């Protein structure tokens, strides 16, 4: 498999120098200049090997999973699942999953794994401040691996991923390669961990965007499949959970050809500088704060 993160790509981290950014939905988003924007790199897990694509049920949704190494399964490009996390179609077994897999009182317990770089530690803290200051999540560092918590790990294969959408129960992981991903990408993974799916999967997305499936490699269809779950908030081009129009050579056949466009054919860049109005509305609806 072709690695997506090579020096040949000359990935750029663009810093937001403005505190206020006006966006297309006529709202004003308040941003922080410590948040990094990577206009090229979507968050994905880089598998060492791949196998079959299987169908399963996860969080009451019918999904497709890619078999990867160590008896794990890749969902949506950046969610690495264990066999215990889902059930196969027509399989009769209890799975510890619920649409109400939320963090009680927005208290998120977390711990750094061993050998975490100071760079990743700082980026993690910046990302938690984004969710904490804007949506009142409480990130509580713990000293022992007990109860429900997120373990923050560092990888060295150009990956950014988490192991659950919402609170899994027990240990769940967010793993980042800080050489290629910034605090905004980590904030994206936190979004998954508190319950958010990718924005491009929303059930109303076909009213706003087009997917170029002919440019998409078979192993990477899952992040672009539309969810059948009814959308509670409108599609949002500014969501921190939305991938950019272009994807890397690992995901598509031609990285110069957009995988997603707006209905008029125009494109957008990855946005990882702030939580959009739509992101906030989704979380408030999920956590019953409307």
List keywords for this structure.
Collagenase (Catalytic Domain); 290 residues; five-stranded mixed beta sheet; alpha+beta; five-stranded antiparallel beta sheet; single chain; 3 helices; disordered N terminus
Name the beta content range: 15-25%
Per the CATH scheme, the topology name of the largest domain is: Collagenase (Catalytic Domain)
Could you report the average pLDDT, rounded to the nearest whole number?
Answer: 86
Shape: globular
Order of helices and strands: EEEEEEEEEEHEEEEHEEH
The percent of residues in helical segments reads 10-25%
Structural class: alpha+beta
**What is the CA-atom radius of gyration, in angstroms?**
18 Å
Strand order, sheet with most strands: 8-7-6-5-9
Q: What is the class of the largest domain in the CATH system?
A: Alpha Beta
Name given to the CATH homologous superfamily of the largest domain = Collagenase (Catalytic Domain)
Q: How far apart, in Å, are the first and last alpha carbons?
A: 45 Å
> Could you tell me the number of beta strands?
16
For the biggest sheet, the summary is:
5 strands, antiparallel
Low-pLDDT runs: 1-40
Number of helices: 3
């Amino acid at each position: 498999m072709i690695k997506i993160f090579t020096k040949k790509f000359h990935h750029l981290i663009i810093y937001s120098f403005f505190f206020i950014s006006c966006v297309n939905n006529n709202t004003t988003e308040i941003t922080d200049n410590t948040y990094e924007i990577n206009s090229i790199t979507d968050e994905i897990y880089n598998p060492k090997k791949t196998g079959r694509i299987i169908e399963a049920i996860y969080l009451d949704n019918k999904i497709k999973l890619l078999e990867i190494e160590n008896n794990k399964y890749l969902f949506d490009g950046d969610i690495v699942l264990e066999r215990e996390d889902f059930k196969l179609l027509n399989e009769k077994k209890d799975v510890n999953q619920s649409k109400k897999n939320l963090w009680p009182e927005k208290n998120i317990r977390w711990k750094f794994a061993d050998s975490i770089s100071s760079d990743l530690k700082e980026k993690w803290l910046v990302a938690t401040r984004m969710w904490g200051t804007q949506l009142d999540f409480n990130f509580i560092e713990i000293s022992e691996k007990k109860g429900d918590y997120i373990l923050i790990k560092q990888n060295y294969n150009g990956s950014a991923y988490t192991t659950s959408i919402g609170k899994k129960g027990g240990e769940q992981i967010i793993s980042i390669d800080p050489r290629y991903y910034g605090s905004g990408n980590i904030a994206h993974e936190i979004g998954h961990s508190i319950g958010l799916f990718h924005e491009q999967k929303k059930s109303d997305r076909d009213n706003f965007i087009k997917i170029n499936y002919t440019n998409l490699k078979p192993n990477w269809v899952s992040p672009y499949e539309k969810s059948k779950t009814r959308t509670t908030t409108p599609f949002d081009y500014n969501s921190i959970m939305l991938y950019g129009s272009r994807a890397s050579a690992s995901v598509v056949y031609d990285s110069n050809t957009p995988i997603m466009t707006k209905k008029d054919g125009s494109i957008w860049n990855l946005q990882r500088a702030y939580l959009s109005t739509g992101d906030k509305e989704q979380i408030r609806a999920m956590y019953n704060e409307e």
